[in-house]
Specification:
The chain is an alpha/beta fold. Helix content is about 30%, strand content about 25%.
């Protein structure tokens, strides 16, 4: 009887491979994938989706340390536009905007993309010169853009304060009518569901803790849920790119900063467009639920705390009340922060790295939500062909040594 129990125990232990003391256990075989995307935000999920849908790859995994869309993807203020100054940036963002325009249909998921227009206000003569220059550059690149007067702004947005007596009087604005907003977390869910339907493994609660390299190329990943073997890894971990790239011995020219936003109690419809101002450091739109969605500039210090300082929010609030005096009676409901990684030229890094098979997508700073489909599309191309697409070729790491920077501070800054 005793002998029978011992045999049963051994058989059970062999089957489960769990009851053996650690030293006797067979090592866990590494799971094998053709491509792994680290980071289950919108960009990572979009990359996996396009790898499967555009490049026919199947053995793909997305590894997310928390839950999908729990990072910046669901913490941002959802502004989507493409009116950047330089040709390289505007073409990349325009590709993204074009993908947004048909994304609900393509993914069969209502991402609530609403092209309600975005106004970037000018408050000084120099602001207006910059706006005119940017609008002219946009039009040369085939991107819709126009300069509008204070009277046109007032006619479109009756609640805005266009008084000449204001501390920062409004002298005009750029307007991109095809720009707008979308529902942020729906974008992550939509890409996840579509990628899953194509066979992509989406693994949550799986933190990447190490990157294995041999002979200058990537061979796998060490994760909180065991090792994974793969020869192709995309790092899409906004805010934490330097930390994860460091696991492969790469030092990135990025700084991580908190960026905050807040929403008001729900109100009846009163703002049907998006208004942004670099000079007063704030911007606002109204969500479909009726909340005013208000964003601020980044906190000036580096950090990973997902919360920022109060004075930044106070400053944005002052700016909003100045632009929209009727907001002074509104109560605020929620406040949160995300961690954004900012590059020296306020442009992303998307491309290859000195480690073969290791690719980067980071450095979007305050403005990567708008790029979600476009960035996934170009990174998937880069990973599938081991060569960047012409749209992301100018955004490689090497620009920080060649000096070919694409400085978008004027069109990015607080105005995401
Ligand atoms: C307050 C705020 C307002 C913003 N407003 C706008 C806006 O209006 N318009 C705009 O275009 N952009 C905006 N942005 C920027 C935008 O949110 C980001 O650029 C964009 O969402 C980045 O997307 P992502 O998918 O790369 O990042 P994320 O959604 O952050 O995804 C990265 C994921 O990587 C995971 N991860 C990190 N480390 C690891 C690891 N070791 N292992 C596994 N997973 C890991 C994280 O958990 C996270 O889920 C804003 C950002 C903030 C914070």
């Amino acid at each position: 009887m005793e002998k029978y129990s011992a045999l049963k125990l051994i058989r059970h232990a062999l089957e489960s491979n769990r009851k053996w003391p650690r030293a006797w256990r067979r090592p866990e075989p590494a799971r094998q994938y053709d491509a792994v995307v680290v980071g289950g935000g919108g960009h990572g999920l979009a990359t996996a989706y396009y790898l499967a849908s555009q490049h026919g790859m199947r053995r793909i995994a997305v590894l997310e340390k928390g839950w999908i869309g729990g990072g910046n993807t669901a913490r941002n203020t959802t502004i989507v536009r493409s009116n950047y100054l330089w040709t390289e940036a505007s073409l990349l963002y325009e590709k993204s905007l074009q993908l947004w325009e048909t994304l609900s249909q393509e993914l069969n998921y209502n991402i609530m993309f609403s092209q309600r227009g975005v106004y970037n206000l000018g408050h000084t003569l120099q602001d207006m010169r910059d706006i005119e220059r940017r609008v002219a550059a946009n039009r040369l690149n085939g991107i819709d853009a126009e300069v509008v007067s204070p009277e046109q702004i007032k006619a479109a947005i009756p609640i805005i304060n266009t008084s000449r007596e204001a501390r920062y009087p409004i002298l005009g604005a750029s307007l991109q009518r095809r720009a707008g907003v979308a529902r942020h977390d729906a974008v992550a869910w939509a890409f996840a569901r579509a990628a899953d339907a194509l066979g992509v493994d989406i693994i949550e609660q799986c933190e990447v803790q190490g990157i294995d390299c041999q002979g200058g190329r990537v061979t796998g990943l060490q994760t909180s849920r065991g090792p994974i073997a793969t020869g192709r890894v995309g790092l899409v971990v906004a805010g934490h790119a330097s930390v994860v790239a460091d696991m492969a011995g790469l030092r990135l020219p990025l700084e991580s900063h908190p960026l905050q936003a807040f929403v008001s109690e729900p109100l009846r419809p009163l703002l049907d467009t998006v208004v942004m101002s670099n000079a007063v450091h704030g911007y606002a739109s109204q969500s479909d639920k009726g909340e005013l969605v208000i964003g601020a500039g980044i906190d000036a210090y580096n950090g990973y705390g997902q919360r920022g300082s109060f004075h930044t929010i106070e400053h944005a609030m002052q700016a909003m009340v100045e632009l929209f005096p009727c907001f002074s009676r509104v109560r605020m409901l929620r406040l949160w922060g995300g961690i954004v990684d900012v590059s020296p030229d306020a442009c992303p890094i998307i491309g290859k790295t000195p480690v073969e098979g290791l690719y980067l997508n980071c450095g979007w700073g305050t403005g990567g939500f708008k790029a979600t489909p476009g960035s996934g599309w170009v990174l998937a191309h880069t990973m599938a062909h081991d060569d960047p697409h012409e749209l992301n070729a100018p955004f490689g790491l090497e620009r920080f040594t060649t000096g070919a920077l694409i400085d978008e501070h004027g069109a990015a800054a607080v105005a995401h």
